[in-house]
């Protein structure tokens, strides 16, 4: 036992003495290298994740900054568009969409993006669709906030001559009445309102629209209800239009006479037109002719038409209980001098025919067809009244409204409102 212990102890002593073995050093070096490589790989992975997080955070910050800038530009564009600077608005819209293409759907219209920035004074009292409910009040408020003595408009460029903004508002309103003219060219007034905010306010003046309603429906038009304003009444209430002519085209095929040899019989295609031209003062012109509209329409511009076949008269609008608007007109031929007729019949032995006046009574139903309003007139009555001057007797002949009475359709004529003869 002692010998074995001695051997064991000797063995231990030998191993302790041989601790400088190069194999052990190689193993330790290999272990250290492997351990260092594992440490480096773990530290590299964590560093990579940190860099990715920092990159994502930086990108998000950049996206937020880009979106804020795009929001500011977009609100600035809205402001420029509302003030009438369309070209400036387009520039800011383009810059905003270059930063964020879908900025229009990300923006919040309820409040400004940043009150301290250029778009901070943007404020929109709007509904869900983002449209200003009362644009007139909005423009008036803007003009009041800009200056204690607001002008109707401001010159865009410096000029040595007097600008229209220097005129008093009363003079401008008189000019606007000349634009509307006695022909009630309200389309020109609406186009004039697109110039600037001040012109928009002047074009919405209630007195102008009230005067237009009185010209159409008479002096009994004193209440604006059930409409919101006089302008709404003029645009929505059914009425005849004065900036053009109502045209009815009728065509049919008629059998002709048989030829002399009896081998064939001719058929004729008959085509003619009826024209109705209404004027704001209550006058109306009615004409039946085979001539094309290109020939007739320019000759119906004024009431003083020199066409012998034209019938002149008056019309009125009637609002029935069933909310249907009807037009009633009485037209007759212009009175001609009897000198030539008397000269021709002076030596005739037969008695001259009794003098009589002919007038035609027309009833039409006003309706809308297609996308336009009040552009269709449908026949409901047509009769001829003959009044004998000697006896005072009146003979009435009513015509049957068959397929020959085709409806009238409105055609706008720009030349009718190209000139202003009188103000509204």
Quick description:
The protein is α+β, with helices and mostly antiparallel strands.
Structure description:
The chain is of the alpha+beta class and 424 residues long. Among the domains are: 135-236, Up-down Bundle (Monooxygenase); 244-335 and 353-412, no CATH class. Helices cover 38% and strands 21% of the residues. Helix 9 crosses helix 10.
Key descriptive features of the protein:
F-box only protein, disordered N terminus, Monooxygenase, 424 residues, alpha+beta, 12 helices, 9 strands, cytoplasm
Indicate the overall shape: elongated
For the record, give the distance between the C-alpha atoms at the N and C termini, rounded to a whole number: 141 Å
The fraction of residues assigned to DSSP E strands is 15-25%
Rg, nearest Å: 45 Å
**Biggest sheet record:** 8 strands, antiparallel, barrel
